[in-house]
Amino acid sequence: MKTSDSIPVKYRKDYKPSAYLIHETKLDFDLFDDHSIVTARLKLQANPNADPSDSLVLDGEELKLLEIFINGQKLESAQYETDSEQLTVWLDKVHNLNYQQNSFELMTKVRIYPNTNTSLEGLYLSNGKFCTQCEAEGFRKITYYSDRPDVMSIFTVRIEAAQQKYPHLLSNGNQTEHGKLANGRHYAIWHDPFRKPSYLFALCAGNYDLLEDHFKTQSGRKIKLEIYVDKGKLEQCHHAMASLKKAMAWDEEVFGLEYDLDIYMVVAVGDFNMGAMENKGLNIFNTKYVLAHSDTATDQDFEDVEAVIAHEYFHNWTGNRVTCRDWFQLSLKEGLTVFRDQQFTADQTDHAVKRIEDVKVIRSHQFAEDAGPMAHPIRPDSYIEMNNFYTVTVYNKGAEIIRMYHTLLGAGGFRHGMDLYFERHDGQAVTCEDFVCAMEDANEYDLKQFRRWYSQAGTPELTVTSEYDELHRKLTLHVKQTCPDTPGQSNKQPFHIPLKLGLLDKEGKDLPLQLAANPEQLTGDILHITQLEQSFEFTEIAQQPVLSLLRNFSAPVRLHYDYNDHELAFLFAHDSDPFNQWEAGQRLFARVIWQLCAEQEAGEVMQFPLHLVNAVQNLLSSESLDGRFKALALTLPDIKALIEEVERVNLDHLIVAHNFLKKELACQLEMDWLVHYQANHHVGKFQQDKTSIAQRAFAGVCLSYLVALEKPKAYELAVSQLLNSNNMTDAETGLKLLMHSNYEDKQQLADDFYQKWQNEDLVVNKWFMSQATDPSDPTIERVETLIEHPAFDLKNPNKVRAVVGAFAGANLAQFHRKDGQGYVFLAEQIKRLYSVNPQTAARLTGAFNRWKKFDDERQRLMCEQLQGILQLPDLSKDVYEIASKALG
Ligand code: 0A1
Ligand code: ZN
Question: Which residues lie at CB < 5 A from ion ligand 2?
């Protein structure tokens, strides 16, 4: 068992510059089926900005050192030492070496075993092809190196392998040479002219299908674009290529940022721990975010591919040209790049819809993280395993913080800040503080208090009350802010919170906003909340307004304001801010759900409040609203988000209430759902324009209500949609709805679906997921059989996420079964996985994080599993960190 004293914790405050810099990195890869040889020639120099050191300490894990030379001198065993994590060379014992003054060359030769590397970090094989994943600390599994982001170097890479099996040999930068060798082998040499840290290194070798295109930059340079995929998948790459070109054009247009190399390559691999990786000039992607064809991918998949392609492309400036000084600064590149990809997607699709989708992620996942045992500021202060900090807090809350600069400074001010950031830091490894300074200096805007968003964890809460004085035509708002304690942090200081708001008159029009005093507290429609308690007096308010608060979710906070049903229905119908229009509907639904829970608690019969019917009917029949917006507004609040609204939850009541509301709405408006379904579901020629996508989304929600009726006619519609559709969006909607229903032939449908799609891995994952998330009772047995299915593979993270991740993360009813079997199942999978793939195992362990929300018995059962996990022999530090923090 791992104990806390055997596991080192890394602290942000301990940062020290590296004692040695690496000016040049020359790597030779000799790739073979059962092992690889890596020769590294590093040009090292003592760092003038660091404390001098007589020893050179390099990171290295799972490496077999074969040779070591300095300046051509073979080192003797007394001059160096290796352990399981490091190579130490005592430079003072190397003869005639003036290591404090002159640069010197270290040559190491190591043997590694990519063929048995299942962690998917370092160099590994996916579907018979070599690939790498080096962020955050994977490069040390390739060669001995100063594997930290502030050590930046010029890389030249020679790759040698069997020509027939590995015709494509790729690395970062430009190919400078290639040729044939004896014994059927060949080689290629790549040179990357940009200095980069080791985490941006990449290598791929294999036999791929290749899609080629090009992009002409704003300054007229022609860039080669190449997408490499498994044989037979070329038809599924066109959308990724089109997305890449859109992203390149958007970054030029919006941020004035142009691509810098002559070639941009994307390689898709089936085995990948995350979504994709921004390695310089050679992105490596999970196939899920490259491959998309309407037969096999949904509209959502298409949007996701476009977003991830853009995200990785945008990293070329925010991440690669300007990188992080240390891993505590991860949000510097990730929060910023997520914000950029969100803006890009909004520009390609619909701003309101995109905003709602992003906020749903924050509320269901980030609020949960912020209130749980893993809560951390967007710039964490410590970690045990860095891989555990690729979180919704660092990424998505980080993006919300960046969005607040944009809100406070305006698009123009934000752009000035970005320009100054690049002007100052291009080619450097910097900190979040450097970013704040650039924004501050470019705009002469004081961000002193705003900086607390980087240091304080937890979700701030705003409690607002209001008073209207008819006589003096005055509205007073009282705003209180608090932030709950989080692990290691209490007594939080007040944040600077931009609160965007509107005051609606009786017709729903926005009234002009004007403060009686302190005008600097209001910029346009943004109120600056900066103190624990503040009051604001609005003047010239002729009638009692309805308040629209936190428009567009202008800050990642929870807002408490005591709306009544009438006000919510009014906002749902009239708010000019589409985000708050959606929000009002969600609040209406949530109130009903909590009321239904209270009725169950009191042993009363649940009552459906008829006032909802009107509100929903109006929305359904609105001609001005977009179909995707309607789909979102008609979807009941996510149970995970609801759980985060209360201290402790009676899950059984919550699920019953949720289902009851859905079914009642289905019954009350049966004809409406049917009419709108029929008007929006099309079986003719497939189209993927905005209107068709919106119609499919809207029709899908209508069908979900119809299926909730549990009537044969409704099942027939869903079965027909599943079997007769000519696109995966409609097919998957039909499949999911039926798999989650009591339709008696659903198993047969599932079997047929598998037969049809068994050769399309990504579709098989949808098939897995639709079954693993079935909330009905035999599902636990079903998932037991799914993990034995020939298509399941514990070594493939996409498969693990599709079955185990989906079960634990998206099947609340079955994962939280009262008998604890859901918890036992998850713990068993973690036990099978932790030594195979520690990163993925740790992600799964996070499903236990919110155990304190549940009833005593469920708490006990979850803790029992967490304790069992902590007893495992040789537990990985990834899983240890999550499980031990969960238990506190
Ligand atoms: N930087 C990538 C995400 C990423 C992080 C870690 C990985 O392996 C541990 C892989 C990818 C991004 O933000 O896209
Ligand atoms: Zn990223």
Answer: 334, 337
**In this structure, which amino acid lies at residue 59?**
D
- Residues 883 and 847 sit within 8 Å (Cβ to Cβ): no
Tell which residue, 205, 201, 76, 190, has the closest CA to residue 129. Answer: 205
Find the helix packing angle between 690-708 and 712-724, rounded to 10°: 150
Rounded to whole angstroms, the Cα distance separating 236 from 297 reads 9
What average pLDDT does this structure show over 195-202?
Answer: 99
The dihedral built from the CA positions of residue 734, 735, 737 and 742, taken in this order, carries a sign that is positive
| Sheet strand arrangement including 152-162 | 73-74, 64-70, 104-112, 36-46, 20-31, 152-162, 185-197, 174-180
Query: Are the CB atoms for 168 and 228 separated by under 8 Å?
Result: yes
Q: Whose CA is nearest to atom 5 of ligand 1?
A: 135
Task: Tell me whether the omega of the peptide bond preceding residue 375 falls within 30 degrees of 0, making it cis.
Answer: no
Identify whether 312 is a catalytic site residue: yes
Contact, 373 vs 885, CB < 8 A?
yes
Task: Tell me the one-letter amino acid at 12.
Answer: R
Collapsing DSSP to helix, strand or coil, 92 comes out as helix
Mark 205-240 as b/e (b = at least 16 C-beta within 10 Å).
Answer: bbebbebebebeeeeeeebebbbbbbeebeebbebb
Closest of 733, 727, 659, 669 to residue 697, by C-alpha: 733
Tens of pLDDT, residues 588-603: 999 999 999 999 999 9
| pLDDT tens-digit readout, 286-317 | 999 999 999 999 999 999 999 999 999 999 99
Question: What does the DSSP 8-state code read for residue 545?
Answer: P
User: Which residues, in sequence order, are CB contacts of 636 under 8 Å at separation 6+?
Assistant: 589, 593, 658, 661, 662
pLDDT tens digits for range 95-152: 999 999 999 999 999 999 999 999 999 999 999 999 999 999 999 999 999 999 999 9
For residue 476, give the H/E element and its range. strand 474-482
Instruction: Give the pocket of ligand 1 (CB within 6 Å).
Output: 133, 135, 273-278, 311-312, 334, 387, 390
Domain architecture of the chain: domains with CATH: 1-207 (2.60.40.1730), 758-888 (1.25.50.10)
- How far apart, in whole angstroms, are the C-alpha atoms of residue 529 and residue 349? 32
Annotated catalytic residue, options 61, 135, 312, 400: 312
Q: What's the gap in Å between 439 CA and the centre of ligand 2?
A: 21
Token pair 């690889």: residue = 36
| Alpha carbon distance 489, 312 (integer Å) | 33
Among 260, 526, 258, 255, residue whose Cα is nearest residue 416: 255
For tokens 């973690």, the residue is 830
User: Quick one: CA dihedral 482, 486, 491, 494, positive or negative?
Assistant: negative
Ligand 1 atom with least separation from CA of 839: 9
Rounded distance from Cα 359 to ligand 2 centre (Å): 18
> Hey, what amino acid is at 359?
V
